[in-house]
């Protein structure tokens, strides 16, 4: 055998070993302690099911609820419903802020329905709320947590975390990172021409979190509007033939209608579940570190997020801004995890 053939064989062996090692590394992400703050909400419920179906990677310490899509009593009931459907009733649900820091409350019943869950019937879940307020839970938990050990996923207005930061700024010591569903830059807004709902619903809270200095990642409309449902993708979920697949199929079929009409899209985004997918498989997403600011002035740009994508201002790059994602990879992940549920 010639020396060249021998060399080629060794090169191929090394390349194969490298691909196996990199695939293993990507799969073996470290298990995160996670608190999910949420305003369920159709896409919030999908996010909660995805997270609660992924215990190997996500140790969900608690779910904290906030007013947003609908009023606090219903977002809290819906969080308990998601927990029940996931068979994870050991995870405590703490109710938090019933209204934003400063502005008058707004809701999105026109999108999420009066009960905050379109397309399905709701009921009173068996297991109730944990005692105590979500803001107090955040303060107590983050204050005594090991340094930078807990990830927060914020899927609604950032009111709860902002209130905790104002009352106890030292809680940042326990925060590993905060991943926010919110904001828009290239995409434009979904509640005004420039503002995304979670930011518009409480921009002052978002500003408090931005100013806290915690490690921040935003999953904005810029990426969630690229990860869209389709008939095939929803049929893929319904074909699971389990309760979770039926629920998510029914919810999404109803939830995406408004966005499809408003934007003339072939499908609708599953905003909040994209945050959980980012935590589970970050390799599905891409973005860059940018300077992010949010407008809290009254007027047409109220709630607008400005991402300095080209570093024009040379200001501090305080946020990782996710701008793209693998849509089919997202739905394959969602479907495979929902298959684990009843
Ligand atoms: O703009 C989309 C966001 O607002 C999502 O989190 C949705 O649930 C609503 O809260
Ligand atoms: Ca939400």
Outline the structure in words:
The protein has 342 residues and is an alpha/beta fold. The protein has a single domain, classed as Inosine-uridine Nucleoside N-ribohydrolase, Chain A, CATH 3.90.245.10. The chain contains 13 helices and ten strands. The strands form two sheets. It has an eight-stranded mixed sheet with strand order 3-2-1-4-5-6-10-7, sandwiched between helices. It has a two-stranded antiparallel sheet with strand order 8-9. Strand 4 (150-154), helix 6 (159-167) and strand 5 (175-181) form a beta-alpha-beta unit. The chain is globular, with a radius of gyration of 21 Å. Calcium ion binds at residues 38-39, 41, 44, 68-69, 155-156, 272.
Number of helices: 13
Helical amount = 40-55%
The CATH architecture name reads Alpha-Beta Complex
Oligomeric state, counting identical vs distinct chains? single chain
**The CATH superfamily title:** Ribonucleoside hydrolase-like
Under CATH, the topology can be stated as: Inosine-uridine Nucleoside N-ribohydrolase, Chain A
Low-confidence stretches: none
Tell me, what's the shape?
globular
- How many domains, as an integer? 1
Taking the alpha carbons of the first and last residues, their distance comes to 57 Å
Quick rundown:
This protein has 342 residues and is of the alpha/beta class. Helix content is 42%, strand content 15%. Helix 2 (42-52) runs parallel beside helix 3, helix 2 packs antiparallel against helix 11 (243-263) and helix 5 packs across helix 6 (159-167).
């Amino acid at each position: 055998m010639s020396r060249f053939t021998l060399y080629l064989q060794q090169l191929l062996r090394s390349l194969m070993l490298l691909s196996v090692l990199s695939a293993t590394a990507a799969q073996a992400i470290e298990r995160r302690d996670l608190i999910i703050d949420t305003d369920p909400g159709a896409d919030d419920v999908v996010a909660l099911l995805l997270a609660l179906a992924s215990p190997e990677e996500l140790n969900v310490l608690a779910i904290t609820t906030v007013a947003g899509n609908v009023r606090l009593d219903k977002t809290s009931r819906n969080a308990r419903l998601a927990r029940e459907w996931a068979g994870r009733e050991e995870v405590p649900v703490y109710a938090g802020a019933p209204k934003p820091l400063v502005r008058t409350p707004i809701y999105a019943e026109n999108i999420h329905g009066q009960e905050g869950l379109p397309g399905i019937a709701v009921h009173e879940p068996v297991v109730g709320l944990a005692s105590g307020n979500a803001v107090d839970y955040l303060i107590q938990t983050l204050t005594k947590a090991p340094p930078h050990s807990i990830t927060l996923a914020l899927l609604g207005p950032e009111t709860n975390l902002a209130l905790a930061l104002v009352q106890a700024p030292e809680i940042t010591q326990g925060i590993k990172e905060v991943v926010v569903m919110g904001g828009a830059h290239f995409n434009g807004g979904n509640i005004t021409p420039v503002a995304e709902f979670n930011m518009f619903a409480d921009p002052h809270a978002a500003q408090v979190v931005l100013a806290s200095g915690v490690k921040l990642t935003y999953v904005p409309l810029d990426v969630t509007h690229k990860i869209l449902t389709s008939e095939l993708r929803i049929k893929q979920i319904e074909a699971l033939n389990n309760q979770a697949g039926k629920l998510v199929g029914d919810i999404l079929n109803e939830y995406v209608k408004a966005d499809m009409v408003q934007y003339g899209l072939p499908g609708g985004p599953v905003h909040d579940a994209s945050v959980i997918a980012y935590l589970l498989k970050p390799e599905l997403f891409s973005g860059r570190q940018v300077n992010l600011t949010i407008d809290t002035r009254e007027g047409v740009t109220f709630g607008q997020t400005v991402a300095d994508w080209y570093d024009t201002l040379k200001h501090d790059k305080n946020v990782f801004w996710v701008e793209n994602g693998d849509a089919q990879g997202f739905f394959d992940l969602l479907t495979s995890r929902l298959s684990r549920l009843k």
